[in-house]
Amino acid sequence: MTTTDTVTGALLATTGLTKRYGPLTAVDHVDLSLGRGIVGLLGPNGAGKTTLLRILATVLSPDAGDVRLLGLDPTEPKERLEIRRRIGFLPQSPRLYGGFTPLEMVDYVAILKEHTDKTWRRNEARAALEALGLGDRMHQRIRTLSGGMQQRVALAAALIGTPQLLVLDEPATGLDPEQRIALRSVLAGCADEGTVLLSTHNTAEVSALCQHVLVMDQGRICWSGAPEDLAAAAQGQVWESPHDEPTAVRSWLTGPGNRRHLGTPPEGARVVTSTLDDGYLLVTRLAR
Amino acid sequence: MIAVLARAALPTSRAIRWTPIAGASALLLVAAMLTAASGRPADLLPAVAAAALASLLVGSLHDPAHDLLAPVPVSAMQRRALRLALMGGAVLLVWTALGLLAQTSPAATAVGSLLALAASGVAVAVWGPARTGVLLGAVVPVLWFAVDQAVPGGGLAADLVGLWRTDPWPVVAVALVVCLMGRHR
Predict the structure, then answer these.
(1) Is there a single domain that holds both residue A68 and residue A167?
(2) Residue A153 and residue A259 in one domain
(3) Which of A90, A107, A114, B2 could bond to A168 as cystine, CB 3.0-4.6 Å?
(4) Are residues B74 and A94, on separate chains, in Cβ contact within 8 Å?
(5) B15 touches chain A (CB under 8 A)
(6) Mean pLDDT split into 10-residue runs, chain A, 288 residues
(7) Are A176 and A127 in a shared domain?
(8) Strands A195-200 and A165-169
């Protein structure tokens, strides 16, 4: 299955992208074309999201297919180097140097991104940390920070240098609601400069932040479009009742004595407005 | 790139864990001093030191922030080379001090055997699995030393496992070629 997505003018394009680990095909013939804006990547655990993001961050090489990032070919060493100067990457569960302060950690990443001016680096690092709410913690040892704070330090490192392509693997993990809101503001600012591609399990994050959503399952992009269209995909197929429904393909408890169902509603069912969660559950169900 | 690595040298040196090498070096130097004071030859000490120091040198390749740093323009190979250069300087200082303190022949404390074990470990670390490569590489010097001690002398097997002592430079050359072949890993 192939899917083509267009937001506006491609900064990121793939054709037939495939990555295998032994008998497992983690990414299966993915075609993408993404321009400026924030793109959310939804999918269940093991769908291949992390592998896809690692390929798009030039960390992994695909087994088959073509990738163009910022108009460049990452398989060519010189072009890969240029891409790496212009991208930011947040891996899943990033680890940092506990003995560094956030300012030192972000500055170190900036050095490795070939930023030569120390004053510029320090100012950029301070700005990124302050934007993520770490202004008062930037001189504290990383090992003394909470998991959410460490996640934000790693995010600040990814943001350094105003990357044109920002690849974020579950950036909101470990963040409290206030920090999530701060993160949204920062990412919205980044989207003005280029493409932000983020994976998440949180559909609320996608509806609040993303102009475009991709749903991935079993290595394939099984749905692509605007978040409101994903919600609309389940319209007329969601209903609520206090008991189990045999015609439902999926049912779950939403509160005491109330169950939500997905599928073909029976006669007289109390059909409700579908949400992004409903749309996501439906398209991943249909993909199997 | 040299300028970038020079700029990264100080923070990289702070990112390396120095406690293991400091502890091992202190132990080895004390052992060398005690052996020298007793007037007995310290035949085994340089070999033990070579294995321990080589293992720690390879262990310095462990980078907790590897995932975060994976897509920066300075490649993993370059960052590893920087770590080896920084740690290697300290290891060579300790090795030289051991050579001065221990009552052994100059051949026993020649740097070739240390480099042969270290280079072999680095080659395994480069080609090993992403998560466990450094650990496997750090085991190589100790394992090679242990097997060398265990195999009885005189046969082909003893000659082969003793190569790191008897012909270290070909071992270094082969290991370096293996490392270079894996420079994009």
Answers:
(1) yes
(2) no
(3) A90
(4) no
(5) yes
(6) 45 94 94 93 94 96 95 93 95 94 97 94 95 94 95 95 94 88 88 90 89 94 94 92 87 89 89 92 82
(7) no
(8) parallel
